[in-house]
Amino acid sequence: MNDSPGRSAVSGPSGGSDPFRVMVVDDSAVIRGLITRALESDPEIKVVASVANGQMAINTLSRQPIDVIVLDIEMPVLDGLSALPHLLQADPNVKIVMASTLTAKGADISLRALRAGAADYIPKPSSTRELTGADAFKRELTEKVKALGAAARRSGSRREGPATARPAAAPGAAVQPTSGYTLPSPVRAKPETGPLTVRPLPAEGRPDVIAIGSSTGGPQALFEVLGHLRGATQPILITQHMPATFTTILADHITRQCGIQCAEAKDGEPIVGGRAYVAPGDFHFLVANRNGVPTVQLTKDAPENFCRPAVDPMLRSIVRQWGRRVLSVILTGMGHDGQKGCEQVVQAGGVVIGQDEATSVVWGMPGAVATAGLCSAILPLKEIGPFIQKIAARRAA
């Protein structure tokens, strides 16, 4: 194997290896120091470089192995968005987290960066005072860095030949759809994952609603999947773990890039077919039945799985409204949000599809539903949209 110089070939510190190696890139020395201290409060993380602009980051990456880069957007000399492709060219397996302010401009640039290859983003508190006291920010940052660091090392260890981007799929890691919608079982998986099994897919009948949950790496995955669903007649309900402002921009990007009418869900609006609805940041997105009409209900109920919006409450409410006529799709993301909701989908007779490990930025959420035996298909990202399209176009039972 031809790996990046010095990159560890093991999965991460939990396996007894060295701490994840991180570079912090920000033009403010104060912010760099605060982010460094937040990261190094976790013994599994070591900040090995701290630099002030994108050009310095490129120079540093060419000299030493790094697992994760926390990359500011607005910097002198070379900004984060301009530096991004050069960093990925230097090491296609390094994982880059864009650090942006909670503004419309910051959200738009972050989503553009995700399309260009960034693995994730982190919304920066707007002041050093907020950053110093933001425990939620520190927890989110360290969790993302560790999850992405492990992914960087896994992708680096299985790369063969000259440095190339991560392969789209690993042989035998996914269920392949066949004519008539029959699926082989069990699914073959990599030895470290263990055997996976799939549930039978109903031979006929189409869903009345498509529900999608995603987190880390989710925006890129959503664009890929939704690009195949512009002709779907069902409503598409989406919970992506994102803060306010970011979800507004995400919905706008989906409309422009995927050709689907998409907007943030608004409390009290009826849910109609052929449209996509995104859970707004800091609200749970539920479905209520009002005089027989499925209607958006937004709540400030307590976070679930440390998230608001969360996938589980959305799925529970969808099952109450549509029962067995639910198609749930769990895409890349950290944690296990969506697993309990998908259990209810399956109990009601609905269908669950999970993204496979090889094409997930982080195989947390889809891995949870896959290993729990809830999926009727576990597919590479590029196959999920066409697969949904076929099921959604079936004749009604």
TrEMBL record:
<comment type="similarity">
    <text>Belongs to the CheB family.</text>
</comment>
<dbReference type="InterPro" id="IPR000673">
    <property type="entry name" value="Sig_transdc_resp-reg_Me-estase"/>
</dbReference>
<dbReference type="InterPro" id="IPR035909">
    <property type="entry name" value="CheB_C"/>
</dbReference>
<protein>
    <recommendedName>
        <fullName>Protein-glutamate methylesterase/protein-glutamine glutaminase</fullName>
        <ecNumber>3.1.1.61</ecNumber>
        <ecNumber>3.5.1.44</ecNumber>
    </recommendedName>
</protein>
<dbReference type="Pfam" id="PF00072">
    <property type="entry name" value="Response_reg"/>
</dbReference>
<keyword id="KW-0597">Phosphoprotein</keyword>
<dbReference type="Pfam" id="PF01339">
    <property type="entry name" value="CheB_methylest"/>
</dbReference>
<feature type="active site">
    <location>
        <position position="215"/>
    </location>
</feature>
<dbReference type="GO" id="GO:0008984">
    <property type="term" value="F:protein-glutamate methylesterase activity"/>
</dbReference>
<feature type="modified residue" description="4-aspartylphosphate">
    <location>
        <position position="72"/>
    </location>
</feature>
<dbReference type="InterPro" id="IPR011006">
    <property type="entry name" value="CheY-like_superfamily"/>
</dbReference>
<keyword id="KW-0378">Hydrolase</keyword>
<feature type="domain" description="Response regulatory">
    <location>
        <begin position="21"/>
        <end position="139"/>
    </location>
</feature>
<feature type="compositionally biased region" description="Low complexity">
    <location>
        <begin position="162"/>
        <end position="174"/>
    </location>
</feature>
<dbReference type="InterPro" id="IPR001789">
    <property type="entry name" value="Sig_transdc_resp-reg_receiver"/>
</dbReference>
<feature type="region of interest" description="Disordered">
    <location>
        <begin position="148"/>
        <end position="202"/>
    </location>
</feature>
<dbReference type="InterPro" id="IPR008248">
    <property type="entry name" value="CheB-like"/>
</dbReference>
<feature type="domain" description="CheB-type methylesterase">
    <location>
        <begin position="200"/>
        <end position="385"/>
    </location>
</feature>
<feature type="active site">
    <location>
        <position position="241"/>
    </location>
</feature>
<feature type="active site">
    <location>
        <position position="337"/>
    </location>
</feature>
<keyword id="KW-0145">Chemotaxis</keyword>
<keyword id="KW-0963">Cytoplasm</keyword>
<comment type="function">
    <text>Involved in chemotaxis. Part of a chemotaxis signal transduction system that modulates chemotaxis in response to various stimuli. Catalyzes the demethylation of specific methylglutamate residues introduced into the chemoreceptors (methyl-accepting chemotaxis proteins or MCP) by CheR. Also mediates the irreversible deamidation of specific glutamine residues to glutamic acid.</text>
</comment>
